[in-house]
UniProtKB/TrEMBL annotation:
Keyword vocabulary terms for this entry: Membrane, Transmembrane, Transmembrane helix
Any Gene Ontology biological process: DNA transposition
Domain Transposase IS4-like intervals: 30-119
GO terms for MF: DNA binding; transposase activity
Protein name from the UniProt record: Transposase
Pfam family, one: DDE_Tnp_1
Keyword Amino-acid biosynthesis: no
Protein origin, superkingdom: Bacteria
InterPro entries documented for this protein: RNaseH-like_sf (IPR012337), Transposase_11 (IPR002559)
Annotated signal peptide: none
Ranges that cross the membrane: 111-133
Length: 188
């Protein structure tokens, strides 16, 4: 890990920042190279040689104070990325960024309901991903798992005390099995 404590960014006003270069571990670099390879297979266009060459390095720019070590900054960025993915799922798949015109009290109720559904979906998603990894050695994408579970939350709630609960869970399991990837050397 290498840190440059004074790097100035900005076209007109130069703002002081810190630049942190983090070299991935061998395992992290292999995972990143695997992702680049998968992206080349699934997305049109060329993967630039620069992307391949820099696959072992993460570049972070921050204005956090010097008291926070470079190692802590790397960890904070990892947490931040997980939050970004959660918000992306929330906005894209749950359509949380779109609301009709309504009174504030109704909007707040709607928002709380959306947040509860998001929380329950996240909990189910985690449980399914853990189960598939432990029992079947299958990796499930967090986003795809959330996308598959979200429409079933209402059905699961209505069926919670009925025999159809099990059949709904089995249906979700079949859907997730179809979208999962067989175990590789990478953990979810």
């Amino acid at each position: 890990m290498r840190e440059f404590p004074r790097v100035y960014l900005g076209k007109e006003e130069k703002l002081p920042t810190r630049l942190i270069l983090y070299r991935f571990t061998k395992k992290e670099q292999q995972r990143q190279e695997y992702r680049i390879k998968r992206r080349a297979q699934t997305k049109p266009g060329q993967i630039k040689q620069k992307s391949k060459a820099l696959s072992g390095i993460s570049t972070l720019i921050t204005n956090l104070p010097q008291e926070i070590t470079a190692k802590e900054v790397v960890q904070l960025y990892r947490y931040r990325w997980q939050i970004e993915l959660l918000f992306k799922t929330w906005k894209s798949d749950f359509k949380a960024s779109y609301f009709r015109k309504m009174k504030q009290a109704r909007w707040e109720c709607h928002l709380y309901a959306e947040l509860i559904i998001l929380l329950i979906s996240t909990l189910f998603s985690y449980q399914f991903r853990f189960y598939f990894w432990q029992e079947k050695q299958i990796i499930l994408s967090e986003r795809l798992t959330m996308r598959a579970i979200q429409p079933k939350i209402g059905i699961l709630w209505r069926a919670r005390d009925q025999p159809s609960w099990q059949s709904t869970l089995q249906e979700i399991e079949r859907i997730l099995f179809a979208i999962g990837r067989k175990r590789t050397t990478h953990k979810p």
